[in-house]
Amino acid sequence: MTHKILVVDDSATIRQQAGMFLRSKGFEVVEAQDGQQGYEKAQSEDVALMLVDVNMPVMNGIEMIGKVRQLDKHAKTPIFMVTTESSKAKVQEGKAAGATAWMVKPFNPDLLMKAITKVLGL
Amino acid sequence: MNSGASVRSARTNAAAKNAELSGMLESCVELTRGEVLAAGEHLAVILEEGERQVAELARLAEQFETTTGSAPAGEERFGDVVAALRGALEDVTTLVGDITSSSVHIRDQSDEIDVRAQELAPLAATMRDVSKRARLLSFNARVESARDRADGETLVALAEEMKALAARSTESAAVMDNLVATLCERLPEMVKSVRVVTKSCSQSQRQLRDGNSDLERSYTRASGAITSAVGSAQTRTDRVQGHCYDVLKRLQFQDRVEQTLQLAGEHVTQVSAFVDDVLRAVEGAEDGPLKAAIVEAISKLDQTYVEDRCEPALDQPEAHGDDEVAVGDMMFL
Measuring CA to CA, which residue among A56, A81, A82 is closest to residue A69? Predict the structure, then answer.
């Protein structure tokens, strides 16, 4: 079964880079360019994991995962914050909202793959 | 001491104290200015580092574009591979043309052999008929000769018949000779054609095998080169992206430093104005506990400003201490 991963980032370059990497590893990828669009995709698509940026227009990543966690089907879906924010205060904010893990960009592909493998039990 | 001398002495002392107080206040102001200047120097160092990062970023971007972004570079890199593939395909096309031409030639030769064989079939039937009739007549002649040895007429008629048959046989033999001669003439040419075609087929087969190997090698080379180029581009993209984030963070820090300096400048102005007011207020006042308390209060105010406003604001955010996650690290929450 192919797992579907939602990539939410306002940077097209990051979305393209993450999408290319994940597709090369056999995942199906859905993209969104802000928190609002990401939340809508999370509602409509059957995603197994989400990679979410923090600083985005319309709706930021912290706010988005707070709303996503209120959806029954995503109560336990792994959500990785992939962001340039590195302060522990921000990390704690993400944790409180429901993030599973925090990764500071630019992301390490090998590390990301290990983490995905771990949380999806592959 | 009379009262006049006493007043002069008091004025002298007051002037001296005022001068001392002014000196102390100026020292306070200088102290504040010193901190601001130190912050300015710090900022200059950071800006210099930022400029270096921007230069490095520009260099990497240029290198990235040279490696992957420009069409001529890609053409130069893959041109020989594409040319090899094109050459191999042209060779295969030529070989297929040769084989088609040889096949047509063989078919023509085969058709001619069929025509000759069809011409030979009725002649062979005639020869068989003649031979049969000759044998029958010969047999009858031997019977008649045994029974009517004296009958000369029968023998004459028989001799005539035999002569006619011999003539027909001779004609048929001549036709057969011509056909055989024609076939003998054509045969070496046909054999030669078949050999040429066979050789051409073997050569074509070998060249096809070689062409196939060339294609496989070219494909392998092209795949390797493309994979390598993509990997290289990915690596460079990662590096450029990393530098972009680095520069971005430094620029953000630069903004914070500038805001802090502006704030510090405003405070310096306020403190200076306040000190000027105090200076004016205490000018001419006699030395005493009140003046000392004012001086001390100004000194404390200045010190508090330096410690509370300037120093914390100038802490560098880039230093990855215990309160930050390092770039590229993953932290499960």
Answer: A81
Instruction: Dump pLDDT digits (tens) for B14-37.
Output: 667 666 666 665 665 565 556 556
Find out whether B251 and B257 touch, Cβ atoms under 8 Å: no
Question: Phi and psi (nearest 5°) for A87?
Answer: -75, 145
Specify burial of residue A50 (Cβ count, 10 A radius: 0-12, 13-18, 19+).
buried
Give the separation between CA A84 and CA B203, rounded to whole angstroms.
65
Edge-to-edge strands of the sheet including A101-104? Answer: A28-32, A4-8, A49-52, A79-83, A101-104, B330-332
Interface of B with A (CB under 8 A): 237-238, 241-242, 245, 248-249, 317, 320, 322-333
Read off the pLDDT of each residue in B78-86 and give the average, rounded to a whole number. Answer: 58
| Interacting residues of B301 by C-beta distance below 8 A, sequence separation 6+ | B271, B274
pLDDT at A9 (0 to 100): 92
CB contact under 8 A, B241 and A105: yes
Tell me which residue in B325, B328, B332 faces A108 most closely, judged by beta carbons: B328
Closest residue of A to B327, CA-based? A104
Q: How far apart are CA B164 and CA B160, in angstroms?
A: 6
Cβ neighbours of residue B284 closer than 8 Å, sequence gap 6 or more: B14, B18
The predicted structure's pLDDT at residue A81: 93
**A51, containing H or E segment:** strand A49-52
Long-range CB contact pairs, B282-288, < 8 A, 24+: B282/B18, B282/B21, B283/B18, B284/B14, B284/B18, B285/B14, B285/B18, B286/B10, B286/B13, B286/B14, B286/B17, B287/B13, B287/B14, B287/B17
Give B332's strand partners: A101
Q: Report the percent of chain B where pLDDT is more than 70.
A: 32
Taking residues B110-128, what's their average pLDDT? 67
CB-count burial class (<10 Å; 0-12, 13-18, 19+) for A3: middle
Please report which confidence band the pLDDT of residue A65 belongs to, taking 50, 70 and 90 as the band edges.
very high
Q: Which residue has the higher pLDDT, B197 or A65?
A: A65
Residue A57: how many CB atoms within 10 A of its CB? Answer: 10
Average pLDDT over chain A, rounded to an integer = 91
Do residue A104 and residue B325 have CB atoms under 8 angstroms apart?
yes
